[in-house]
Amino acid sequence: MKETDLSKFDNSWYRPGNKLKIILWYFVNASFIWNPLFPFNRPKIWILKLFGAKIGKGVLIKPRVSVKYPWKLEVGNHVWIGEKVWIDNLGLVKIEDHVCISQGAMLLCGNHNYKREAFDLIVGNITLKKGSWVGAHAVVCPKVTIGSHSILTVNSVAVKSTEEYGIYQGNPAVKIRERKIVD
């Protein structure tokens, strides 16, 4: 029976951007986006845009948010990104209008192929459709789309895409009911 051999791991095929830009971003992210002593929203948005993020109007970014690569981030209008959200966007993360990402949530575009001896890197995009809500400490995995107006509840893990207006719970997340929005 074969075993995992991490000495064979090789992700040299993965090139997320210019090395100097990545190093510079690491320090800028730590100093301004993640830093709890820098709560100012407008400068955060300006900095993210400076590094290539596409961000709409009315976006709120709380302290201690971490963005891996802003040039792989698209954020629509009136989006809320809560405290301690981790956007590990090895692939493209697209967040449409009126999306709420609650505190401590993780958007993970990377994974590993556990079937391969070298534990190969797998990268997939994530899309959060209009009006969706990713609850506190929930996890969205690579190649997942959270459907329009659907909810991924607290501490749940989305390993597959969700249907629009569905409420999903658990690990792995399963649909528990329909979301009905009232006045």
3D architecture notes:
By secondary structure, the chain is α/β, with parallel strands linked by helices. The chain has one domain: 3 Solenoid (UDP N-Acetylglucosamine Acyltransferase, domain 1). It is built from two helices and 19 strands. The strands form four sheets. It has a seven-stranded mixed β-sheet. The longest helix has 15 residues, at 19-33. The N and C termini lie far apart (59 Å). The mean pLDDT is 97.
What is the mean pLDDT?
A: 97
Question: What share of residues are in beta strands?
Answer: 25-35%
Low-pLDDT residue intervals, each spanning 5 or more residues: none
Order of helices and strands: HHEEEEEEEEEEEEEEEEEEE
Question: Structural class per helix/strand content?
Answer: alpha/beta
Helix share, percent: 10-25%
CATH class, named Mainly Beta
The fourth-level CATH homologous superfamily is Hexapeptide repeat proteins
Q: How many strands, what sense, and barrel or not for the largest sheet? A: 7 strands, mixed
Number of domains: 1
Strand order of the largest sheet: 2-5-8-13-16-18-19
Measured on Cα atoms, how large is the radius of gyration? Answer: 17 Å
**CATH architect. name:** 3 Solenoid
Number of helices: 2
Could you give the distance between the termini? 59 Å
CATH domain topology = UDP N-Acetylglucosamine Acyltransferase, domain 1
What's the number of extended β-strand segments? 19
What spatial form do the alpha-carbon principal axes imply? Answer: globular
